[in-house]
Structure formats: structure tokens, C-alpha cells
Design brief:
Blueprint (H helix, E strand, L loop, with lengths): L13 E3 L2 E3 L2 H9 L4 H7 L7 H7 L5 H14 L2 E6 L5 E6 L1 H20 L2
Length: 118
Amino acid sequence: MNLPLRKKMKMKKYKLDGTFFYCPVDLTLSVIGGRWKGLVFWNLRDGAKRPSELKRTLVGINDKMLTQVLRELESKGVVIRKVYDGIPVKVEYSLSKEGKKLLAVMQLMSDWGSKFAM
């Protein structure tokens, strides 16, 4: 049986940090997916927080993991790190402009999860 030759489809590529994605959902999940990234991101929705505040909220996360997650979110451009001079140095994290745009998606995920769990 001869199958017709498929035309080569030109797929749109999305690039983030040197990585190509063929699906925008996959790209989004690479930014907020994983065990802690979504939770850290979601806990910043109400405003800037210090790492110690986030750690109290996120039961089970250790300092090393929290630092790693915050750095990843910052490198993706959805979180901003602000350093205040002083002794000791004070650091706060908040959502960037792009991070705030992503909040609508996270809210939909929260709504869906609340209904699905019932």
C-alpha cells in the first residue's frame, strides 16, 4: 500500500534560554513546572516576600532548593530580586511584569484544581 508523501510541515518554534520548544504549553510548563516553581510563583502573587517568608509557607522546602527555584524563576524573567543595603542585607522577591501576566493562567489552574479535587 502506497501512502501519500506528507508535505514537510513547518512547525513554529519558541525559544527560551537557548532551548527550542515546539509547543507554547511546553515552554510555559518549563517556566513554572516542577515540584516547587509553581508553588513559589503562586506565593508571590500577593506581593514581595523575603526568602524566609516563602520558606515558612512552603512546608518541606530546604534553603538550597528555595534558592535554586528563585534563581530559575528570576532567570526566566518572571521573578524580580531586589537587594536592600544594610547589615544584614535584605533581599525580596516579587513578580515581574511577565510574571504578573502569568498569574491569570495560574488562577485558572487553581480554580480547576479546586473543582477537580471535589
